[in-house]
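Discussion board: Methods & Data

I've been asked by a reviewer to show the raw model output for two of the constructs in my manuscript, not just the figures. I'm not sure how much to include, so I'm pasting the format here to get opinions. Each protein appears as its amino acid sequence followed by a line of C-alpha cells. Is this the kind of thing reviewers expect to see in a supplement, or should I convert it first? Here is construct A:
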Amino acid sequence: MQKFRIVPKINNILKPTSKSPSILGISIIGTGGLFDINEKDSSFIIHFNNGNILIDCGSDTYKFLKKNNMIKDISHILITHTHPDHICTLPNIIFDNYILNKKITSIETTEKVGEIINNYLLNICFNKKESFTINNTKDENFYDLNIKIIKIDTTGYHKKNMPSCGFVFCLKKNNESIYIIFSGDINCPITKVIKKQNKDLYKELNDNIDNVFVFHEATAVIQDKKDLVHTDYAELNELEFKNIFIYHHSKEEANIIIEEFPELKSLVLMEKSLILEEIKTFWKI
C-alpha cells in the first residue's frame, strides 16, 4: 500500500471539516496487471471521513481487507470490468459482509457490466440475491460522502465487445471543483472517450484542468495494433491533463515509462507503507 501527501493548495481544498465530508486519503492495494504477481492486482480504496469506496477487487483484495479489518467499513464497491484481476474476490467480500457483518454489499457499475456481475454472483458463485445490490445509474450522488460519481462507458475500448467502464469523482470544496478519474482497463486515454461521450463534462474538466487528477492504466509492452487492450504510455504524455498517475504494469515497464516521460508518475515506483493510520492526505507529488 502507498501513501501520498497533497500539494498545499489541494490539501487545503480537500481538508475535511465537521460540516462537509471529504477525502482523507487513498490506499493502493495493488498496481499490477493480471500477470504481475509482485505488484498485485490493481485495486484502490478512497478514504472518506464518512466511509470508504473500493475500486475493483482482484485476487489480493479480500485478503488485504480482511487482514486490516476493513470489510465492514467499505461503503460501496466500484467495478470497472469483469476480468478476474478486477473481480475475483468480490464474492468473498459479499459472503463475509452478509454472513459475518450482517451487511448488504453495494456495487456500482454500468448496466452492461452489472448484468455480467449479477450472473456471476448468482449462478456461478451462488451468493444470495439479498446479499448484494447492483446500481447502474449513470450519474450517482453520494450525499453522505459529498461526492458525485459519473460512470464512463468504455465498452469495446479494452477488449472488443467486452463491457467496461471508468469513473469520474466530482467534489466541491471551498468553491473549487476537484476531479479524480479512474480509467479502468482501456486501450486509449479515457479523457478521449469522455470528450466523445460527454462534451459538457470534458469542458468542465478543461476549465478546472489544474484540479483534475487522473489514475490511468498504462503499458510499455508492444501490442498487436489490431487488438490493442491497454493504453500506450506515450499517448498519456500528450494529454493536456498533467496530473497523471499510472498503474497496471510491472516495475520493469514503469522504469521504461518514467525514463522517457518523467512527468508521468508511476504508482508502482512510489513510496509504500503498510500503516493505514498514516494516510491522512492524498498524494505525494
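Construct B, same format:
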Amino acid sequence: MEISDRILDIATHKPSVDILFSAIEGYEDLKEILYLELYAEKQGSIILVGPPATAKSLFLLEICKKIPNAHYFSGTTLSGKGLIEFIDKHRNAKILCIDEIDKLSKREQACLYELLETGRVIYTTGKLKLNFMMENIKIIATSNSTEKLAKPFQSRFCPLYLWPYTYELFVKIAVRLLIERYGLQQEISTAIAKVVWNKFQSRDVRMLLHVGHLIRNDHTEQDIERIVRTLLKYQVQETDYNG
C-alpha cells in the first residue's frame, strides 16, 4: 500500500489493510478483497471456507476488534439464546462476523437468508416476534465446508476457499508468533515449527502456541522433540469416564 493510501485511511478514520489484518501472516491478496468488501457502500456477504488452522476465525476476530459496529458470533456457542436474539441486541450493527456458520440451525439460516435478500429480520416464535430492517448489513462468515448450508442460502455468499499453509509459510508464522508471544529466538521458533510440522503432522497455528509456551531459548531441538513426544504420548481420543 502506498503512502498516499495510508494518509487517505487516516483521513477517513479507517484502519489500513495492513493494520486491520496485522496479526495474520500471508493471504495478502485475500486481505485486499476482504478490505474492499468491508468498506464497499453496498450490502455484501463473504464466506471463508476451508479446513481448520487456516486463519478463518482470526480474520473475523481482527475485523471485530478494529472496526466499529462489527460484532462476532460463533455458530458453536452452546449457551445463550442463539443468533437471532444476538442480532436483536445488535440492530445497529454494520458488520456481522459469524464463525462456523454451518453450525446454525435451518431456521437461523432461513432468517439470515431473508436478511441478505431483503435487508429485513423476520422471526416469530411463541415468545419472540421480530420484524425490523438492517440496511446495507455485511456478513462475513466462516465454514469448514458448505455441505450443511442450504443451497439458496449459499447463493447469497461469495465463497472464498482457503488452503492449508505451506511449510515455508508455517515457519514464517511460527517465527513471528513465538517471538511476539513468548520472546523466543528465531532459531528456536524455527525448530518448534519444524517439530510441530513433522512430529505432530500439524499445520495448526494453535499447536505452535501449545508447544511454544513450554519452550525456553536454551532448549535444543532434541529437547523440543522430547517434549513433543511426551505430548503425543498422552494425547488420546476423548473418553467419557462419567459412566
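Answer (T.O., handling editor elsewhere):
This is acceptable in a supplement if you add a one-line summary per construct. For B, something like: The chain has two domains: 3-161, 167-233.
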